[in-house]
Amino acid sequence: MGEVRIVKPASAGGVALELLVHGVGGATPEKMLNDPRTVRITGDGTAAVYRRTDDVAADTGPGDDRGRGVPVPEAYVWSNLTSGNGTRALWLLLLPFMVVNLAHWMRPAARERTRAVRVYGLLVRLAALSLTVLLVAAACEVALDLTAWQCAGTTACAERHTWLGFLSSAVSEGGWWSLPGRRVALAALLPTALTALLWYLSHRTWRAYESQEPLDRAPEPETGPAHTALGRPGFWYGRRLVARLRAAHTAAGLLTVAAAVGTAAVREDRRPGGPALLDLLGRALEASLAAGALATVWVVCRRGRSERRLDRRVDAHLVRGLPLAALVLLALTLVYAGWDRPGWSSEGRLPGDAAFGALALAQGALVIALAVVARTLHHCPRRRDPGAPPERCALHGLGGPAVAMLACALGGVMSGGVSQRVSDWLDGTGSSLDGPPVLLTWQAAVIPVLLLVVLALCALLARRTLLLIRAEEKEVVRTYGVRSGDAARTRLIARARAMAALTDRGPLLVAVVATATLLLGAGALVGAFGTGRTPARAAQTAQPFVQGAAQTAQALGSWLIGLGFILFVTWGRRAYKDVSARRTIGILWDVGTFWPRAAHPFAPPCYAERAVPDLTWRMATWTRATGGRLVISGHSQGSVLAAAAAWQLKPSDRARVALLTYGSPIERLYGRWFPAHFGPAALAALHEDIDCWRNLYRPTDPIGGPVRLSGDGCGPRVDREPLADPLAYGRSEDHPLPTPVLGHSDYQADPAFAEERELLLGRLRPETPAGEVPVQRS
């Protein structure tokens, strides 16, 4: 802790502050403040607060130097936390990790069921651990089995790929690397390097994000259904948990590589007539791997998040010791596998079928158990007003299990597709290699079937959207009061409204895809272990149509995963470089990376662990130092950050803050999918604690929506009536040129924005300043 200096506020006048927080698309301080001359007053190149040059000293002189109570505008710019160069698009390859981390936060709202909440978190963490094992096992399958064991051990394949010549006994007779165990040991460097890369990325982002300390304060009493964990002092400080999980997942990856290398050697040593010493060493190795696996699972199960206080401790002995022990065990396994075994040749596949089958079965069981716990916790409130839908909880509390199922499906599809694609590339003739495990081939083959289900659902949604457009055309004519308007103009507005409504169909899409994935995954598991053959070979005795369909599905699934990889990287690069693409793709990505890494340490980092403490520190220090008025104005994802920061304030500071949100997904997305943290009771409690809350939204906005709360002195409701978009149907004296359909952008262009802003500033009254504020100095 650095030196503490007491700073006395220079002014106690009625200075008002308007803190602007932009949304997903990002913005420059010049655009947010509508002035080309801006100055950074606090922060760094990653996230900072800016003011106009003329406003730098607006709250340091006597009284209100600006006069007439005009607020001092400040812009908090956080776009560098989520944007960057195109190489950051590679984070999309870790999409399954991010999705399973989302499942942790989708826990239903619970009433005094602490044990069930802990079980829910435990199940999600175990599912996340299985995804790490699956990813490393898929890398082992590609490097060890397909490349080093099968291709390098087959003359035709090794001759076709000359870069494998030094591994092939047929090409390099008597070469040191030609022994099967040594080939496999050398190939193990690839999945080991992948595990090391994941550790490095997680460690680097951990130092940059999880180590940002929030405002330290005493915890508030947690009573009643209105409580939300977002108000806990340690919510945005997951330093200790992420360090523990990183150690466990790194150890799990290294142990997976060790198991893949050692299993083949153990199987060889157990054959009749094998060396007794190596057989004994193999049994000791298996026992050590089992002990390491149990220790890893114990670390994952032992501790969840510590949110009630700032837990600054890091379990250094565990964080360093567990991965180091796994690395030492891997090194010993490589030495054991590379021992000279006369007469050993690589035939068939490495024993990976049982491992992938056990992983798939375990993931299915975890998802089903998670669904049972989620139903136990589920409590969805009744609708609060006649205009609200009767049900606002996504999938009746099963959103978390459905999303966890999608994460497991993404991992399985990527593993099966990549393995099948590499097998097809190595085996040019299609007859020289046995290929990947049968289960992975079945998983790749079900991809076209899943796509057909998705396409059928999209066709259904498209039909409903067309019907909705027709209904909206009548509503547009009624809203704008036109008798015989322009048909093209009417249809343009109606289409914008209907397309915006598709966001509310998200739960249906997730439910259908998750259910289809569970059923198809079960079918793949039964087909793989029931027939013991690939889909194409299993259908050889069937009708010609069935044979052709099986062969097509198997081949198409392999190619689709390659296409999906290219699309992932292309869309990711575009989302980081193109503003329009970022607004469509970015909202889903920013929702996923908004939440701390509570389940998977290799998920992309949580930008809110930097942004929320930034906003909290700025609001708390400013209100205490000046005693002035403060309106925090958030657009889109910025409104979620603003609400999260307000929850982190002390009650006395929170009462001095007014909240203006526009284009906000806080209820439409977060309230439905994350009811335990943004449910109606939590939002109502926040509304009661702050001075006032006003919300603006448009029916053409696909992201923002109403918060559905009753009002107080600000008005009968928090939500203003839906804003007209466009502002005028046709030409008028106020709008001589056609006005555009704005959708999610440019809310400040609507006169209602200025009215609501003035309402909030007029309600707040200056209070006596706190007098003295402790400020930390580094």
Automatic annotation (TrEMBL):
<dbReference type="InterPro" id="IPR029058">
    <property type="entry name" value="AB_hydrolase_fold"/>
</dbReference>
<feature type="transmembrane region" description="Helical">
    <location>
        <begin position="395"/>
        <end position="419"/>
    </location>
</feature>
<feature type="transmembrane region" description="Helical">
    <location>
        <begin position="281"/>
        <end position="301"/>
    </location>
</feature>
<keyword id="KW-0472">Membrane</keyword>
<feature type="transmembrane region" description="Helical">
    <location>
        <begin position="247"/>
        <end position="266"/>
    </location>
</feature>
<feature type="transmembrane region" description="Helical">
    <location>
        <begin position="439"/>
        <end position="462"/>
    </location>
</feature>
<keyword id="KW-1133">Transmembrane helix</keyword>
<protein>
    <recommendedName>
        <fullName>Integral membrane protein</fullName>
    </recommendedName>
</protein>
<feature type="transmembrane region" description="Helical">
    <location>
        <begin position="322"/>
        <end position="339"/>
    </location>
</feature>
<feature type="transmembrane region" description="Helical">
    <location>
        <begin position="119"/>
        <end position="139"/>
    </location>
</feature>
<feature type="transmembrane region" description="Helical">
    <location>
        <begin position="354"/>
        <end position="374"/>
    </location>
</feature>
<feature type="transmembrane region" description="Helical">
    <location>
        <begin position="89"/>
        <end position="107"/>
    </location>
</feature>
<feature type="transmembrane region" description="Helical">
    <location>
        <begin position="549"/>
        <end position="572"/>
    </location>
</feature>
<feature type="transmembrane region" description="Helical">
    <location>
        <begin position="508"/>
        <end position="529"/>
    </location>
</feature>
<feature type="transmembrane region" description="Helical">
    <location>
        <begin position="184"/>
        <end position="201"/>
    </location>
</feature>
<keyword id="KW-0812">Transmembrane</keyword>
